[in-house]
Amino acid sequence: MRTTHVEAVMGTAVSFDVRSESLGPAALRAAVAAACRVLHEAEAVFSTHRAASPMSRLRRGELTVDQCPPEVAAVLTACARAREATAGWFDADAMPGGTDPTGLVKGWAAQQALDELVSHGVTAALVNAGGDAVAVGRPEPDRPWRLAVRDPFDPARWLCIVPLADAALATSGTYERGAHVLDPRSGAPASAGVVSASVTGPDLTVADALATALVAGGELAVPAVSDVAGYAALLVLADRRLLRVGDFPAQPLPSAGPEGRQQGGLAGPAQPDPLQRTARG
Q1: Residues facing residue 263 across a β-bridge
Q2: Strand duo 132-136 + 276-277: pairing
Q3: Averaged confidence pLDDT in the chain
Q4: Which CATH class, in words, describes the domain spanning 2-277?
Q5: Domain range annotation of the chain
Q6: What mean pLDDT comes out for the span 208-217?
Q7: Looking at the predicted structure, is the pLDDT value of residue 69 above 60?
Q8: pTM (2 decimals)?
Q9: What is the secondary structure of 213-256 as a DSSP string?
């Protein structure tokens, strides 16, 4: 059985593709509904645009961490670990207005939503939160989930395909939302020359934070990120170079017509791998 769903939450569209050989349609719909509740609860707790949210109140000094819902402490702990892992290029405490975990909380929420699906007995699912995706199992026994990485210079083209099986893919960049990522060391919009950064690894929370750090720090952040075991990245630089950090699992595009334009969610034509490996990769 299979069910799909798209939920508007956290300022984006979160899509679900859920499969099961043992659960019926009603059980699958119930699992997706529970996962959506997880996302809405995360938005209610962490939104910095809602004045009454626990995160907003914490930032204003009206609450302590101990007075907030327990997930606040969990996310702030993840932020602290991400700051250490990225040598400070991800730093939720360096944001204007106080601590702001926005750089990883969407990935954290999507990961929690996937975990909720699994707790309901789902064995194969893909949760895609506006380009930050996490998967469990396989859609079919002989193939993994497959996601395309968009070309930030041409929204009608893809750069490569990334297979996911019990793994995550997070992308951060400036090509859709502008300069929304800040340099934590200066407080100014990031100017490190990274147009987009895509990160794969076992956990979407970590991948989301690493992608943010790479946009903030650019090639200066690469040594720290490349030391995080189990994660790899693909950077698109402002001069159009592609930079691979670690063993990023990029696959060539299938053929999709003479112009290689988007068709059916993927685009071609297949080309030789243009990615440059970093010295540490």
Answers
A1: 266
A2: unpaired
A3: 87
A4: alpha beta
A5: 2-277
A6: 94
A7: yes
A8: 0.87
A9: HHHHHGGGTHHHHHTSTT-EEEEEETTS-EEEES----BPPPP-
Find, among 167, 183, 177, the residue nearest to 247 by Cα.
Answer: 167
CA distances from 23 to 1, 18, 166 (A): 7, 10, 20
54: CB partners within 8 A, 6+ apart? 45, 46, 63, 68, 69, 72
Residues 6 or more apart whose CB falls under 8 angstroms from that of 47 comprise 10, 53, 55, 56
Q: What distance in Å separates the CA atoms of residue 59 and residue 66, rounded to the nearest whole number?
A: 14
Lookup: tokens for 8: 């508007």
Q: What is the DSSP letter of 65?
A: G
Q: How far apart are CA 151 and CA 195, in angstroms?
A: 10
Q: To which H or E segment does residue 246 belong?
A: none
Amino acid, single-letter form, for residue 208: D
Helix (H, G, I), strand (E, B) or coil at 260: coil
**Terminal Cα-to-Cα distance of the chain (whole angstroms):** 40
* SS3 assignment, position 220: helix
Q: Which has the closest alpha carbon to 6: 150, 176, 128? A: 128
How far is residue 21 CA from its own chain's centroid?
Answer: 28
Q: Give me the percent of the chain exceeding a pLDDT of 70.
A: 88
Which tokens in the block code for residue 35? 């996962």
At 252 the pLDDT is: 84
Q: Which residues pair with residue 124 across a beta bridge? A: 19
Per-residue confidence (pLDDT) for residue 192, from 0 to 100: 74
